[in-house]
Amino acid sequence: MKLWKDERVDEEKLTHRVLVAGRDRFLGAWGPGKKYGGSTAVWACTLNDYELVLEWVRLRGDMSHVRLTNEKALKRVTGLVHIYTVGNHHPAVSGKGKS
């Protein structure tokens, strides 16, 4: 079973094309992802921000298999895939937090 959720609006799909993904151990184990066979969280960002976002996701304690990816590869992932947009106020790029 698969569930695909993309929070980006159409304009952001053009500007936020770099995708940083990680397997969400928390939601995949007992949360919404369990029903679908796992959970992959994805942060869509701009090319200028991807290094900060990649580091921010790597520092999270609930993510494994952190990587840069693309939509074609994500379409092959089993389970819940949830894409979030990284805006200017996101902790990864605003300097307000590392988790």
How do the strands and helices of this protein lay out in sequence?
Elements: E1 2-6, H1 10-15, E2 18-24, H2 25-29, H3 32-36, E3 39-45, H4 50-59, E4 63-69, H5 71-74, E5 79-85, H6 91-94
Parallel strand pairs: 1-5, 3-5
Antiparallel strand pairs: 2-3, 2-4
Describe this structure in words.
The chain is of the alpha/beta class. It has a domain at 14-75. Helix content is 34%, strand content 33%. The protein has six helices and five strands, in the order E-H-E-H-H-E-H-E-H-E-H. The protein has helices at residues 10-15, 25-29, 32-36, 50-59, 71-74, 91-94, and strands at residues 2-6, 18-24, 39-45, 63-69, 79-85. The protein has a five-stranded mixed β-sheet with strand order 1-5-3-2-4. The protein is globular.
